[in-house]
Design a protein that fits this description.
The chain is an alpha+beta fold and 179 residues long. Helices cover 26% and strands 18% of the residues. The protein contains 4 helices and 5 strands, in the order βααβββαβα.
């Protein structure tokens, strides 16, 4: 039984109150505050798919690398906010900003954006935030004039408990994942 679960399903959120913003130098502080919260993925800083090597890099270095990308104006993702508080994150960016995402990746395609990560705090899961975040990420990519969007095939990570929600979002949006 999940910690804090009282036996009844979680209340659905009023998704009309969610505001989505791109992570930019102006919103980087909101991103940083979200990732510094207890339970947030500060062990990764969403650099796992951006680093070209899989060697161990200290968390503070991952944070420094991510902040440098943001400060340089590189697209890294979007934030979800409710009542002015940042509550969730989705990594959506041009595919070339990530390391190779699939052995069968076709690098001749241009204008491809990829979704590689979600972070929705445990207390907000099961309320529709992931679906709203996923939809906003797709809208964000297409608003940038991109012709295609490719979610990666999500492998269950030892620290990730959101992979099932991600797969559900893909199925709901009628995406198929690469083998």
């Amino acid at each position: 039984m999940p910690k804090g679960w009282n036996g009844s399903p979680p209340e659905k959120a009023d998704l009309a109150d969610i505001r989505f913003t791109e992570v930019t130098p102006a919103t980087r502080g909101d991103f940083e505050i979200l990732f510094e919260q207890p339970g947030a993925p500060k062990y990764c800083w969403c650099m796992a798919w951006r680093q070209s090597v899989r060697e161990h890099i200290p968390n503070d270095e991952k944070k420094r690398q991510m902040m440098a990308l943001i400060d340089a104006g590189r697209p890294v993702g979007i934030l979800a906010q409710i009542d002015g508080k940042t509550v969730a994150w989705c990594s959506v960016a041009p595919r070339e900003t990530y390391r190779r995402l699939s052995k069968r990746q076709d690098d001749s395609e241009t204008g491809v954006w990829s979704i590689v990560c979600f972070y929705v705090p445990r207390a907000l899961r099961g309320r529709g935030f992931a679906f709203a975040l996923f939809d906003a990420a797709i809208d964000h990519a297409f608003a940038k004039g991109r012709i295609s969007l490719r979610p990666i095939r999500w492998a269950r990570h030892r620290r990730a408990t959101v992979s099932w929600g991600f797969a559900t979002c893909l199925r709901r949006a009628a995406f198929t994942t690469p083998a």
